[in-house]
């Protein structure tokens, strides 16, 4: 202990001597000695001063739980999405469709292992954390002799910055870029003190400062923050430092308040005749007797001493209301829904799918698009004269899992897709991460019978919209029955609606039952015709009664042929639509 005390005294003496001798001024303020840190120096290491008196930096900002939650939500979610290399391929009718290019040489690099030390998720999460907290994220591309990317490395955002060269320079070949690169005057590049794979190591292998090196634009994946000039991003922490300073100040206040067992301080009055040394000893003795674990104990004061407590209620400062307000402010700066950042004041909320869609639209999509475009122009650039031929490959992620609905919503979506022929059984199983059914029918798409294309209107050969409307065999089989009903109707004294119904109702109901059985078999359902077809037959008989005024026995053959074909077509369309509607109401069985 004496040795340590003596050493401490020597250090203090040396510091005082230095203060007395060195009076050089700082570059920022001539009135500030270099022995005392200037504001600009404190800003570099401890963050910018705020109105609350708390200095805020990118790292201290993470002590705010809301900042930590927002950064972790955005960076964690985007990095956990499945990223793939896609290829645009020509489709039908001139459309461009895309497929996952598993065979591409960059697929594993951009999906699983971007370098030998980390996974794609780890790299991307760090990339986004840098962009969200600092002025941007930086990733350096390591290339081989053929100028092909072989690895991607993160760069420390506090050690990397974009610069514009005033004179043409040539970068020598390096182990991670085995060919020289020329940067012309006026072009922008990047400058960093990070190594390619041994950050914070000097050239001789010892820890220390590394000489700054320049990186060509084509070898740096730059993800800037809020950039007013499109090149240099602004740190969100720096822009919102006053709000973050208030939060950190309240955190500090709360910690101190509860560290003292939520007991306020007070004033200890001492006799006036005490020596300064005795006052200090008395003060220390009081704190040891009444502070920490000894709080709330009965205090015994000598004669002439007096303790006056000071009360303070945190509610008077509206601490709780201010914390809720500031939490919302920070969440809005990152465009994250406040409830996801920990705001429980809102009692009602929408569905999970709606909330995830809001998070995707406002917080995630801008960063996803920025990553896609930066990777596209640095790793999959267009080549040739006039930027042709076009490079069909690009990087993208699948956000389906993020906006995945609950079981009821998915059931409704799958049923609609199967009914309206834009999903097959295996499409549905793919969405549910199930193995496909190895049967031809599982790849087929159902076509609604009650719908048809504008180019194929209802006619004798397209009654059900699928080209299966030929009714000639039915007309031939039922020809004698219809001719008998026709003769009995002409033999009636009164050719009214009652006569039409008595003669032709059995025939039309027989057609209804026949087409109903055929439709149910084709659609694989147990549904049968119901009251809808009965109403249709009643209306059809009324129209027949109007036409019967011109029927004659002499034109029986021609009239029967025409009326039989018309009745068969009309009943077939009505029954198929009815069975299709009943089929759509049935619960869907996936697969």
Could you describe the 3D structure shown?
This protein is of the alpha+beta class. The chain folds into five domains: 2-57, no CATH class; 58-134 and 235-262 and 326-405, no CATH class; 137-231, no CATH class; 407-443, no CATH class; 472-585, no CATH class. Helix content is 43%, strand content 12%. It has helices at 2-21, 39-46, 65-80, 107-111, 120-133, 236-239, 241-259, 276-290, 319-333, 352-379, 407-419, 425-431, 472-477, 479-490, 497-523, 531-547, 556-585, and strands at 48-49, 55-56, 83-90, 96-100, 136-143, 149-155, 160-164, 169-171, 181-183, 188-192, 213-215, 220-224, 226-227, 233-234, 266-269, 306-309, 393-397. The chain has a three-stranded antiparallel β-sheet with strand order 4-3-17. A three-stranded antiparallel β-sheet has the order 6-5-12. A hairpin with a 5-residue loop joins strand 1 (48-49) and strand 2 (55-56).
- Give the DSSP E fraction (strand runs of 2 or more residues): 5-15%
Number of domains: 5
Shape: elongated
Number of helices: 17
Low-confidence runs of at least 5 consecutive residues: 1-42, 198-207, 455-469
Intertermini distance = 80 Å
List key phrases describing it.
single chain, 591 residues, 17 helices, elongated, disordered N terminus
Give the helix/strand layout.
Blueprint: H1 2-21, H2 39-46, E1 48-49, E2 55-56, H3 65-80, E3 83-90, E4 96-100, H4 107-111, H5 120-133, E5 136-143, E6 149-155, E7 160-164, E8 169-171, E9 181-183, E10 188-192, E11 213-215, E12 220-224, E13 226-227, E14 233-234, H6 236-239, H7 241-259, E15 266-269, H8 276-290, E16 306-309, H9 319-333, H10 352-379, E17 393-397, H11 407-419, H12 425-431, H13 472-477, H14 479-490, H15 497-523, H16 531-547, H17 556-585
Antiparallel strand pairs: 1-2, 3-4, 3-17, 5-6, 5-12, 7-10, 8-9, 10-11, 13-14, 15-16
Helix pairs in contact: 3-5, 7-9, 14-15, 14-17, 15-16, 15-17, 16-17
């Amino acid at each position: 202990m004496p040795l340590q005390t003596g050493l401490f005294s020597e250090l203090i003496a040396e510091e005082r001597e230095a203060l007395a001798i060195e009076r050089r001024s700082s570059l920022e303020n001539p009135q500030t000695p270099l022995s005392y840190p200037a504001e600009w120096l404190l800003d570099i290491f401890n963050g910018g001063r705020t109105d609350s008196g708390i200095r805020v930096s990118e790292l201290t900002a993470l002590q705010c739980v809301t900042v930590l939650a927002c950064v972790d939500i955005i960076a964690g979610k985007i990095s956990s999405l499945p990223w793939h290399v896609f290829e645009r391929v020509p489709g039908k009718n001139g459309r461009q469709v895309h497929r996952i290019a598993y065979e591409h040489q960059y697929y594993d690099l951009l999906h699983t292992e971007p370098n030998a030390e980390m996974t794609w998720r780890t790299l991307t999460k760090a990339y986004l954390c840098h962009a969200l907290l600092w002025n941007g994220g930086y990733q350096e591309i390591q290339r081989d002799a053929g100028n092909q990317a072989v690895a991607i490395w993160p760069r420390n955002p506090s050690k990397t910055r974009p610069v514009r060269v005033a004179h043409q320079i040539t970068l020598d070949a390096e182990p991670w870029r085995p060919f020289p690169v020329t940067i012309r005057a006026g072009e922008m590049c990047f400058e960093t003190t990070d190594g390619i794979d041994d950050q914070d190591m000097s050239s001789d292998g010892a820890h220390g400062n590394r000489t700054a090196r320049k990186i060509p634009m084509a070898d740096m994946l730059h993800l800037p923050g809020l950039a007013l000039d499109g090149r240099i991003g602004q740190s969100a922490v720096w822009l919102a430092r006053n709000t973050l300073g208030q939060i950190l100040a309240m955190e500090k206040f709360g910690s101190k308040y509860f560290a003292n067992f939520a007991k306020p301080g007070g004033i200890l009055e001492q006799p006036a005749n005490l020596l300064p040394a005795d006052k200090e000893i008395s003060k220390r003795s009081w704190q040891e007797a009444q502070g920490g674990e000894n709080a709330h104990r009965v205090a015994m004061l000598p004669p002439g001493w007096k303790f006056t407590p000071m009360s303070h209620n945190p509610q008077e400062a509206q601490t709780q209301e201010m914390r809720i307000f500031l939490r919302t402010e920070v969440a809005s700066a990152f465009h994250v829904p406040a409830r996801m950042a920990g705001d429980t004041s809102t009692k009602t909320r929408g569905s999970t799918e709606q909330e995830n869609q809001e998070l995707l639209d406002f917080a995630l999509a801008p960063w996803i698009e920025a990553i896609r475009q930066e990777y596209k122009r640095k790793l999959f650039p267009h080549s040739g004269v006039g930027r042709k031929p076009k490079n069909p490959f690009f990087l993208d992620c699948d956000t389906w899992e993020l906006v995945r609905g609950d079981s009821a919503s998915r059931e409704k979506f799958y049923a609609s897709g199967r009914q309206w022929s834009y999903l097959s059984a295996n499409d549905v199983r793919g969405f549910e991460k199930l193995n496909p059914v190895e049967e031809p029918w599982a790849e087929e798409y159902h076509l609604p019978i009650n719908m048809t294309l504008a180019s194929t209107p209802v006619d004798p050969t397209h009654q059900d919209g699928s080209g299966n409307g030929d009714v000639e065999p039915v007309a031939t089989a039922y020809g004698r029955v219809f001719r008998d009903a026709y003769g009995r109707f002409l033999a009636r004294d009164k050719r009214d609606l009652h006569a039409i119904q008595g003669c032709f109702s059995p025939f039309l109901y027989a057609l209804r039952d026949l087409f109903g059985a055929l439709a149910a078999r084709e659609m694989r359902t147990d549904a049968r015709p119901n009251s809808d077809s009965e109403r249709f037959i009643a209306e059809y008989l009324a129209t027949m009664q109007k036409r019967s005024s011109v029927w004659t026995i002499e034109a029986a053959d021609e009239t029967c042929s025409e009326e039989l074909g018309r009745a068969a077509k009309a009943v077939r369309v009505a029954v198929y639509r009815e069975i299709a509607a009943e089929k759509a109401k049935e619960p869907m069985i996936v697969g």
